[in-house]
Amino acid sequence: MRLTHFYTALLFATLLAGIAGCGPDDARGGAGKGAADAKKKLTRDEFRALVEGKNRKEVLEKVGKPSSTKIIVSGDEKWHFDQFVTDPITGKTQDAEIWFDKGEDTAKNLTFP
Fold it and tell me: Could you tell me the CATH number of the domain that includes residue 88?
């Protein structure tokens, strides 16, 4: 009887520990978190260093999913990240955008609207 209680408690503790570790990683330290979930805001230069010249998969691994994506008439694709970086002069948070040229998989242009 005691052994059954021990195994039940062990199973419960194992499941609880597994559930606690199931959350997504920080957007800056691993994959899985989107822009809205990020805690520490990157500077523009940090953001640029993480994504410039990277392909889509690498961008997702470095900073997570964008808040939105849009393909414009020319076929270029824009990934928008809401309130994701800090302005170096004012210290205020602002949006960031990554542009991919039509048919290309590499981040070509970054904007901070």
Answer: 3.30.1450.10
Q: Do the beta carbons of residue 41 and residue 59 sit within 8 Å?
A: no
**What is the number of domains present in the chain?**
1
- Whether this prediction's pTM lies above 0.70 is answered by no
Whether residue 53 is contained in a domain is answered as yes
CA triplet 22, 25, 30: central angle to 5 degrees?
135
Q: pLDDT tens for residues 12-65?
A: 444 344 434 443 333 444 444 444 444 578 999 999 999 999 999 999 999 999
Exposed (0-12), middle (13-18) or buried (19+): which is 110, by Cβ within 10 Å?
A: middle
